[in-house]
Specification:
Length: 151
């Protein structure tokens, strides 16, 4: 589990330093970086199952500064959508075989990365303090984004 998370975090760093070539094989000033799009939330006392389109709720992790940016464009107040738009400090606690995400010192839950590293799950039912039964499970899909590099 730790190895998978370290691989993904390493990919974040490596991908932010990659350049893309245009059709003329000239190197341009474009970098590629991963973003995580919330696609589904399940669980809670009511047993919700809310789905979201890509680009509705986007989390971007800056591993250098341990800052996470959330863009939350959900306008449906009846859906559980996690964090509001903003910038948050985050950390990851490695304990035994599990990795736990903390946002602004509040524990969100255990992180699980799919084998393909395309999906990320945050499960509030499993925390470093023990197991629960009424938390939410947030499922994210990784999307790579190309952006012009700032000089």
């Amino acid at each position: 589990m730790k190895l998978n998370l370290l691989i993904v975090l390493s990919c974040f760093f490596v991908l932010t330093n990659c350049s893309l070539n245009d059709d003329n094989n000239n190197i341009d000033d474009t970098v590629v970086f991963p973003t995580w799009h919330l696609i589904n939330v399940t669980g809670g006392l009511a047993g919700i199952d809310d789905s979201f389109d890509l680009r509705t709720i986007i989390w971007t992790f800056n591993i250098t500064d341990q800052v996470m940016t959330v863009v939350n464009n959900n306008t449906d107040d009846t859906k559980e959508d996690g964090l509001d738009s903003g910038t948050y400090n985050y950390s990851i606690l490695e304990e035994d075989e599990d990795d736990f995400l903390f946002v602004e010192e509040d524990e969100m839950g255990v992180l699980t990365l799919s084998q393909s590293q395309k999906f990320l799950e945050i499960d509030e039912n499993f925390t470093s303090e023990g197991d629960g039964a009424d938390g939410f499970i947030y499922t994210f899909e990784r999307v790579l984004v190309a952006q012009e590099e700032e000089e």
